[in-house]
C-alpha cells in the first residue's frame, strides 16, 4: 500500500511542546527519520502488518518569513507614536529575523531529503494579530484531495488535528483512501478522531518510539 505523509509543521511543533512539558524532555524533531517511524508503527498495526507499505512522499507545510513581512512590521513601528509600541515591534522584528535565520537553515537541510517537499506560504502580519499563518490549511487540504483523486496514494498520514481539514478527510475517505492521524489529544477535535481510520495519540507514544524520530537535546 502506498502512503503519503502530510505535516502541518506549526501544529506538529505544538505536539512536541506538549510532550516536552508532560515528560520534562527537550526533544528535537528529526524530519528525515519520520517516515521510517510511520512505516514501522503501521507495520505493527493489525490492519497493516501483512501489507507491503511504500512511502511515496512527505509534504511539510509551513509559513515563511519574507522581506514583505519585515517591511510591514517596520512600517507599523515607524508610524507608531507610542514608545512602548515601538519597543514591542522592535522586539517582534528582532525575533522574526532570528527565526528566519533558523528557517533558512531548515529549508536548506530538508532540500536534500529524498521524497520530501516543503510547501510554503508567506507569513502575514497585522498590528492586532501579530505574525500568523494564512493559507496553510487550505494548501494541505488541496494536496490531500488532489492526490487522492489522482490515485497517488492509498493511505494518507496526517500530522495535524486542525478541524479545518475535516471535510477534506471525509472526501478522501469517500474516494476509498485510508486516513491516519498522528496528533495529541490537546490538539485535536473529537470529529477529527471519529473521522480518522486510525488516531494515534502522541501522549501514548513510548519514549523509545519517540527516539526513532526525535532526539533529546542536551542543554549546555
Going by CATH, what is the homologous superfamily? 5'-nuclease
Largest sheet: 6 strands, parallel
Euclidean distance between termini CA atoms:
44 Å
- Provide the β-strand percentage band: 15-25%
Question: Could you give the count of β-strands?
Answer: 10
What's the helix count? 8
CATH third-tier fold name: Rossmann fold
Q: How many structural domains are formed by the residues?
A: 1
Mean model confidence by pLDDT: 90
Overall spatial form: globular
CATH architecture: 3-Layer(aba) Sandwich
Strand order of the largest sheet: 4-3-1-7-8-9
Uncertain segments are none
Give the C-level CATH assignment. Answer: Alpha Beta
Rounded to the nearest angstrom, the radius of gyration is 19 Å
Describe this structure in words.
The protein has 220 residues and is of the alpha/beta class. It has one domain: 5'-nuclease (Rossmann fold, 3-Layer(aba) Sandwich). Helix content is 45%, strand content 24%. The protein contains 8 helices and 10 strands. It has helices at residues 9-23, 34-43, 67-79, 83-110, 136-149, 166-174, 190-195, 207-210; strands at 2-8, 27-29, 54-64, 116-122, 124-126, 130-132, 155-159, 178-183, 198-201, 214-216. A 6-stranded parallel sheet has the order 4-3-1-7-8-9, sandwiched between helices. Strand 5 (124-126) and strand 6 (130-132) form a beta hairpin. Helix 3 packs antiparallel against helix 4 (83-110) and helix 5 (136-149) packs parallel to helix 6 (166-174). The protein is globular.
Amino acid at each position: 500500500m502506498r502512503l503519503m505523509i502530510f505535516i502541518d509543521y506549526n501544529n506538529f511543533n505544538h505536539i512536541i511542546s506538549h510532550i516536552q512539558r508532560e515528560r520534562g524532555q527537550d526533544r528535537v524533531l528529526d524530519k528525515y527519520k519520520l517516515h521510517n517511524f510511520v512505516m514501522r508503527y503501521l507495520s505493527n498495526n493489525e490492519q497493516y502488518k501483512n501489507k507491503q507499505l511504500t512511502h511515496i512522499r512527505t509534504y511539510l507545510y509551513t509559513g515563511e518569513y519574507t522581506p514583505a513581512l519585515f517591511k510591514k512590521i517596520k512600517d507599523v513601528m515607524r508610524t507608531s507614536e507610542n514608545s512602548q509600541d515601538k519597543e514591542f515591534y522592535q522586539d517582534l522584528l528582532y525575533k522574526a529575523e532570528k527565526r528566519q535565520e533558523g528557517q533558512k537553515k531548515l529549508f536548506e537541510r530538508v532540500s536534500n531529503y529524498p521524497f520530501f517537499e516543503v510547501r510554503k506560504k508567506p507569513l502575514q502580519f497585522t498590528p492586532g494579530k501579530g505574525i500568523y499563518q494564512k493559507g496553510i490549511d487550505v494548501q494541505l487540504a488541496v494536496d490531500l484531495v488532489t492526490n487522492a483523486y489522482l490515485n497517488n496514494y492509498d493511505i494518507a498520514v496526517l500530522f495535524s488535528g486542525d478541524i479545518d481539514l475535516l471535510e477534506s478527510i471525509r472526501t478522501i475517505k469517500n474516494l476509498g483512501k485510508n486516513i491516519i492521524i498522528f496528533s495529541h489529544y490537546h490538539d485535536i477535535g473529537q470529529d477529527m478522531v471519529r473521522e480518522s481510520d486510525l488516531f494515534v495519540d502522541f501522549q501514548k507514544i513510548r519514549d523509545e518510539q519517540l527516539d526513532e524520530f526525535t532526539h533529546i537535546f542536551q542543554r549546555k
